[in-house]
Design brief:
By secondary structure, the protein is of the alpha/beta class. Helix content is 34%, strand content 24%. It contains nine helices and ten strands. The strands form two sheets. Strands 3-2-1-4-5-6 form a six-stranded parallel β-sheet, sandwiched between helices. A four-stranded antiparallel β-sheet has the order 7-8-10-9. It is elongated.
Length: 224
């Protein structure tokens, strides 16, 4: 997934509003709609464009600017028909990066058949996780060790390729201590490597890091 600058959110219940807040606080612009005016109003300050309306109407979506979005989040998981129409409309507007909330296995099968990228459940926690996944460029996984420190698995940024770990000086520049390297996803972790190890294009790193500093650096494309 490339860098996300503008996201459309269809439905502003718990899931949709959680994603809207998380993305907005990370600098992503949001276009959102909901049938309930109260849901739109309570997100005032988070939405670039907020509207009361029906996203099953393709003309409404087009006029509101959803075609400009980098991704669409469909959060009305209890209404399969609405979710299906939202997917169809998003694809018609040229948006193929689609995230859907699902209620059950039957809904999941239908939306998978429509080619939805990501299907998530349940509510608030998944909303936070999917928002973070959308904005991060290199992070594969984060495990919180305490309030400030995490075990982070991340891909080698393009700017690192061909450089040595010594020259990158990751501990000083990013406050991360690399403890292991994988050559590819799911391969065994190598914990013994030279300080002058040369970064390869497919490398994945495991590190102990300051959570806030690392996430901010990743989002702002500062890992280089």
């Amino acid at each position: 997934m490339g860098k996300i600058n503008l996201v459309g959110i269809l439905g502003l219940g718990i899931f949709g509003s959680t994603i809207a807040k998380e993305l907005s606080e990370s600098g992503v612009e949001i276009i959102a709609c909901d049938l309930d005016e109260k849901n739109v109003d309570r997100l005032d300050g988070y939405l670039t464009v907020g509207s009361v309306g029906d996203f099953t109407d393709i003309d409404y979506m087009r006029n509101l600017g959803f075609a400009q979005c980098d991704a669409i989040v469909i959060s009305t998981g209890t209404n399969l028909e609405a979710s299906v129409l939202g997917v169809i409309n998003a694809k018609e507007l040229g948006i193929n990066n689609i995230i859907c909330k699902v209620k059950n296995k039957t809904n999941r099968k239908v939306l998978e058949a429509l080619g939805v990228n990501t299907l998530v459940q349940p509510e608030k926690e998944s909303g936070v996780q999917i928002a973070r996944r959308m904005i991060h460029n290199t992070i594969e996984e984060i495990i919180n060790l305490d309030d400030n420190t995490s075990l982070v698995e991340f891909r080698a940024p393009e700017e690192w390729v061909g450089k040595s770990l010594t020259s990158l000086n990751t501990r000083q520049r990013y406050d991360i201590n690399i403890i292991g390297i994988r050559k590819r996803r799911r391969e065994a972790l190598t914990t013994t490597f030279p300080a002058g190890y040369i970064i390869q294009a497919d490398d994945i790193y495991v590190a102990i890091a300051n959570t806030d500093k690392f996430e901010k650096a990743d989002y702002l494309h500062e890992i280089r």
